[in-house]
Design a protein that fits this description.
The protein has one domain: NAD(P)-binding Rossmann-like Domain (Rossmann fold). Helices cover 47% and strands 12% of the residues. The protein is globular and about 50 Å long. α5 links the parallel β5 and β6. It is α/β, with parallel strands linked by helices and 264 residues long. α3 runs parallel beside α4 and α6 crosses α7.
């Protein structure tokens, strides 16, 4: 069963059928929040996941398959959630994709898809969720940026550009709602062991003709002084904290959770 930290609240987490988003959903459910899952996957597997979270934490869990590339679907998803629960009290913008390539060889369609899913979808969810948050004078917006929202790496031009944009969007929204009981913050993880990162490891192995162990140690964790991947569960607990009363005056920050990467 859930504790009561966020009892009565409802959280929408984009890209939450696996990886970081799923960890966020589970942590928020454990704190008592109702959950709206969103993301890709097999329908039966998603339904089993939905039922498991609902049963384990004793909260209401629904699934919405809105495509993060489609503004109308995003707006409809948020509107349906507001109609059902009264508001999206907690909005976690987590949906993201990645592609690694030199910029002069970067496919234009891949660039646009990364910008649209990793950045533009955040605009649409925030725009749709804010009116109900303002009406009730409470809300928490958490944008999953990245260490790459604060520093760059080669061959990730679209991802770095999108995540820097998320950091800028976070600051702007925070200033606009600063006088209300609404906050907007970004979490900036380093490398987390997720399906997205597993895909990046495979891409780097091919690009550099390196073993898996070499890629992990020499390309990924070389930037992370902790020399370990960030755990999904850690990020979930950070999200719960940002929704707690103790974080009421934390607004507009980009919080690195990356084992010391940015400290260098």
């Amino acid at each position: 069963m859930a504790d009561s930290t966020l009892e009565g609240r409802t959280a929408l987490i984009t890209g939450s059928t696996s990886g970081i988003g799923l960890g966020m959903a589970q942590a928020l459910a454990a704190a008592g929040a109702n959950i709206i899952l969103n993301g890709l996957g097999d329908g039966d597997e998603i339904e089993a996941l939905r039922a498991e979270i609902a049963d384990q934490y004793g909260v209401e869990v629904i699934y919405d398959g809105a495509n993060m590339l489609e503004a109308t679907e995003i707006t409809t998803m948020v509107g349906s959630a507001v109609e059902r629960f009264g508001a999206v009290d907690i909005l976690v913008n987590n949906a993201g994709i990645q592609y690694v390539s030199a910029i002069d060889e970067f496919p234009a369609d891949r660039w646009q898809a990364i910008i649209n899913i990793n950045l533009v979808s955040n605009f649409h969810t925030i725009k749709a969720a804010l009116p109900a948050m303002k009406k009730q004078n409470w809300g928490r917006i958490i944008n999953l940026a990245s260490a790459h929202g604060l520093v760059a790496s080669p061959y990730k031009s679209a991802y770095v550009a999108a995540k820097h944009g998320v950091v800028g969007l976070t600051k702007t929204v925070a200033l606009e709602i600063a006088e209300q009981q609404i906050t907007c913050n970004a979490i900036c993880p380093g490398y987390v062991r997720t399906p997205l990162v597993e895909g990046q490891i495979s891409d780097q192995m091919k690009a550099h003709n390196m073993s898996r162990e070499q890629v992990i140690n020499d390309i990924f964790l070389v930037a992370q002084p902790s020399k370990r991947f960030v755990e999904v569960e850690e990020l979930g607990q950070v999200a719960v904290f940002l929704c707690s009363p103790g974080a009421s005056s934390i607004n507009g920050i980009s919080l690195p959770v990356e084992g010391g990467w940015i400290a260098k």
